[in-house]
Structures are given as structure tokens and as C-alpha cells.
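Q: Hi! First time doing this. I have a protein sequence and I read that you can turn it into a structure. Is that right? Here it is:
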Amino acid sequence: MQLFSIGVEERDIDIKKALIRKVHIGKPDGLNIEQKKSGDLLFLNYISDRKDNPNIGEIRKKLKEYMANIISEIILEDLQSYMVEKIIEDEYYYFGQEDRNRILRDAMAIMWGGNPTIRSEVIRSRWRARVWQRIMEHLENNDELVLGGFIRFRLKDFRQELEEAVDRAVDELLIEKEYSEFIKLLRYFVEVQEPKVEEVHVLMGEDKKYTLLDSNLRIINNEFLEDMAREIGDGDISHDDLLISSLITIAPKQITIHQFDRIQNKELLNTIKNVFNGRVIMSRDGILPRQ
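A: Yes, that's right. Below is the predicted 3D structure, encoded as C-alpha cells:
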């Protein structure tokens, strides 16, 4: 007597292997598993070797709970990567394989990485409980479950979260690529210019404004920097932007940023180091300009 049947698409080889492996582990006593093909689907059928078993109702109940555990585990441990790969293939097919691998890795980290208030274990546990409950609801009135159809119709919100994680991963990748191109452009501007001074010392005052000193520790003043400083007063440019623009304009051979640990904008420091590759010294020491 057939008690339960689960179907998976034949072409999903890895998922099929995982399913076959897991349904045989811990198989309830007195039950056999047979494989049958129907079109593009492979069905794994649980068969009882006793037609007159008086405990068949209890066996069927335990089997469904057991299968709910297996199926939820397959969806959250094996199928999720496959689902993300399929989303990337359908929506972001124009990326190269290296970028696709990066998107997959980052999307999974976004999906399960948690946030400052919720740990990844909590997120995964909530989804597992949700998926398990929906499988049990389906099995209340059904002795058959087709994995692909169940996911499409009963786990739309799970797929939507995966899609959102992929979209975020793509956005982060594009931002990084744009930043990389921006850095290359700024680095080019620096490399083609003649240095206006050999060395620049950068100081940040208590007012968060930056002062630039030359190799003799005298304040650097020029018309361009003064014009940009006036723009600060109009709110058109930040102090951090002014610093980068000033350094690119001066294009020194060496930059020493003093008391760099006081500068909270670490992205600013990274940008300076990337633009002036090999020319930047980070110092914890303070310094005073000469009069």
C-alpha cells in the first residue's frame, strides 16, 4: 500500500540526489521506497509491506512529520542555492560567471547574515518553522507533494526574499564597480599631473576642518583651495570632499595624515589611500603648523 509520494524534476540532478539520500536515512521500519518516473518528474513512493497493518494511521502521521522535516531541510539547505542561481540566470544573465558567483555568495550572506538585532540562527529557525508548518498543512489533505509546485505556490514569500537578497547583492556589486571606476579616474588625474608640492601633511582641527601643510609645515594656500573653501560656506561641498579635491589638485608625491584615528570617515581614508596608491602615510602623531 502506498502511503506517501514526493516528486522532483528529473533535470534537477543535485536536488534529486539529495532527496534520494535523505529519504533513505531514517526510513521508518516496515516501509519500502520505490522510484517511478512520470513525464519530467521522478516520484519516490513510500510503500507499506503490510496491507492490514492496524497501526497504519499512526505510521502515516509519523511519516508525514518525518517527510516535513526532510523537505524543509532540503528547501533551506539544498534548494535555496539552486533557487538563487536560477534567479540570477533569469534576471541577471548579462553578468559574467565571476560576477554571478559573487552575487550568489553575497545574496546568501544577505539572506541569512542577520542584522544587529536578529541573529542568522533566528532567521533560519523562523523560516524552517514556517516551511515545516506549510508542508504539514499541505499533507493534511494530500499524500503527494511535488517539490517544485509546492515552492511555486506555497512559498512565494520565501522566493521573494531570495529575489530581494539577489537585488541587493547586485546593487552592492554595481556600486563597488562604479566606485572602482571612479578611483581609477581620480588616480589617472593624479598620475598625469606635476606635483605642486613634494609632501603634504593633513591635520584635522576640532571643528572637523582640514588644514594642509607643506614639507616645511607651513599652511598651503592657493586661489583654488580658497575658492573651494568658500563653497563650503554655501553648503555645496563637504569638508571631506574638499580635502580629496585639494589633494588631487596638489598631487603631492607623499601624503601624511596625522592623528588619522580621529577621522571617523574611514571611507574617506580608504579613498585617499586608493587614489594616492603607495603615497600615503597614516600617523597617530599630532603636528602643529609653523608660523
